[in-house]
Amino acid sequence: MSVKVVCTNKKAYHHYLIDSVIEAGVVLTGPEVKSLRAGKANLLDGYAKIRNNEIFLYSVHITPFSHATNINIDPLRTRKLLLHRREIRKLIGKIQEKGFALIPLKIYFTIKGKIKLELGLARGKKLYDKRADLKKKETDREIERAYKKNK
User: Fold this and answer.
1) What are the pLDDT digits (tens) for 44-78?
2) pTM over 0.85
3) What is the chain's Cα-based Rg?
4) Secondary structure of 93-126 in the HEC alphabet?
5) How far apart are CA 118 and CA 86, in angstroms?
């Protein structure tokens, strides 16, 4: 489906339970696209909010393109996300439930060269949930090692 993944938010899967995933387009300027082609973006502190029936992306850092001729734009600027109205209405209903947030999971280029953002409808994990996940991951690794060793 996707040709080139620019960046992923690996910490999101550790800090949140991802309920569903939505694909959205992003409104960008020319130098930002060139910077993304070079793979210079960071989703770590990013989040999305709904304002006036539109979705905006906050705190996503796209490094300014070094060879841009015009004035570089703020790397942390607010960016508009492109979704259908019915998808936005569905998200408004989900976000009004307690504890849900929109977290960017990855930015990638499609086969046609369009930039897409994968948004996750997420609920925050408690500390004991995080510990249980780490313990499960470790036991799975040990089982896999033992299986490979006996083969």
Assistant:
1) 889 999 999 999 999 998 888 877 676 767 888 89
2) no
3) 18
4) HHHCCCCEEEEEEEEEEECCCCEEEEEEEEEECC
5) 17
Query: What are the pLDDT digits (tens) for 102-131?
Result: 999 999 999 988 999 999 998 888 877 788
For residue 115, which amino acid is it? Answer: I
On whether the CB atoms of residues 129 and 22 are closer than 8 A, the answer is no
pLDDT per residue as tens digits for the range 10-30: 888 888 888 889 999 999 888
Class of domain 2-125: mainly beta
Cβ–Cβ under 8 Å, residues 32 and 65: yes
**Secondary structure string (H, E, C) spanning the chain:** CEEEEEEECHHHHHHEEEEEEEEEEECCCHHHHHHHHCCCEECCCCEEEEECCEEEEECCEECCCCCCCCCCCCCCCCEEEECCHHHHHHHHHHHCCCCEEEEEEEEEEECCCCEEEEEEEEEECCHHHHHHHHHHHHHHHHHHHHHHHHC
Query: In the prediction, which pLDDT does 72 show?
Result: 66
Pairwise CA distance, residues 43 & 8, whole Å = 7
